[in-house]
Design goal:
The chain has 2 domains: 144 residues, Rossmann fold (3-Layer(aba) Sandwich); 104 residues, 3-Layer(aba) Sandwich (Rossmann fold), CATH 3.40.50. Helices cover 39% and strands 15% of the residues. Helix 1 links the parallel strand 1 and strand 2. It is an alpha/beta fold and 276 residues long. The strands form 2 sheets. A 6-stranded mixed sheet has the order 4-3-1-2-9-10, sandwiched between helices. It has a 4-stranded parallel sheet with strand order 6-5-7-8. The protein has 11 helices and 10 strands.
């Protein structure tokens, strides 16, 4: 599989939540080409029915598959819940499909209390309850719907991001020791979230999934991490609801977006400076 002339990995999501996952893989294997398949015509997926989500993510993956990727990463929790089985039925075993799961298992090792921030649809889902039962049944666990946070991140709206973080923080138990980011968008402002906790006088460990998903992707395609590999000269290929497109320059306000846009610099790892 990995002896194709161009080793591309495709990421599919409704929006820019895939940036953190693509950047994590790029850091571990800079020689891999990336395909970023966003679906701005139909996002967000959260309010949609499971059948709608399944149909939309299949369409995005089919468009990305035309570019001959060696793997497809579903960088969206909602799409992973509702579409992963359908995607694997279509594309595997020829093309591995890797899903995204909130990092509840490693968070539970802290002993808790653990709080999971996610979209409203995920926070009330049987899927999330099943993960808690499987990996954190003996840990004090809370679920918080971070209403509007994913949408604010998508819009790079600093005021809306801070308001949504503040609202979610107000619902979060004050003794929380571990915070699980249960939406792929949230990792783009993880530093901002940590800073909000510190402002309340609390220190939490934030758990997210991009590095774990990147490592799983490499395992599935038979590669080891190699951060010193010669970077591919090919910029990411971007699909917008199946159409060729480009990442908007405003995404450079996020460190992960800056890396993928080729604007990496000495401050890229710092908390993003967002326009108000």
């Amino acid at each position: 599989m990995t002896d194709r002339p161009h080793r591309r990995v495709a990421f599919v999501d409704s929006g820019i939540g895939l940036l953190g996952y693509a950047a994590a893989l790029q850091e571990l294997r800079p020689d891999l080409e990336l395909v970023l398949a966003l679906d701005p015509d139909h996002m967000p997926y959260g309010p949609r029915t499971p059948d709608e989500v399944r149909e939309l993510i299949l369409a995005s993956a089919a468009a990305a598959a035309q570019l001959d990727p060696v793997a497809i990463v579903v960088a969206c929790n909602t799409a992973s819940v509702h579409g992963l089985d359908a995607l694997r039925a279509v594309f595997e075993p020829e093309v591995p499909v890797i899903g995204t799961v909130p990092a509840i298992r490693p968070a539970a090792t802290t002993g808790g209390p653990v709080t999971i921030w996610s979209t409203a649809a995920t926070s009330s889902s049987d899927y999330l309850r099943g993960l808690v039962d499987a990996f954190a049944s003996d840990v004090d666990t809370h679920s918080v719907a971070a209403l509007g946070l994913a949408e604010a991140i998508e819009a790079t709206d600093a005021d809306a991001i801070d308001q949504a973080i503040g609202a979610a923080l107000a619902q979060t138990p004050s003794d929380t020791r571990a915070l699980v980011l249960g939406c792929t968008h949230y990792g783009l402002v993880a530093d901002r979230i940590s800073a909000a906790f510190r402002g309340r006088g609390a220190e939490v460990t934030v758990f997210d999934s991009p590095v774990a998903v990147a490592r799983q992707t490499l395992r599935r395609i038979g590669l080891e991490p190699d951060e010193e590999a010669a970077p591919t000269p090919t910029p990411p290929t971007v699909l917008l609801s199946g159409r060729p497109g480009a990442l908007p320059g405003r995404l450079a306000l996020y460190a992960q977006g800056a890396r993928l846009l080729g604007r990496d610099g000495p401050d890229a790892g710092a908390p993003p400076t967002l326009a108000s």
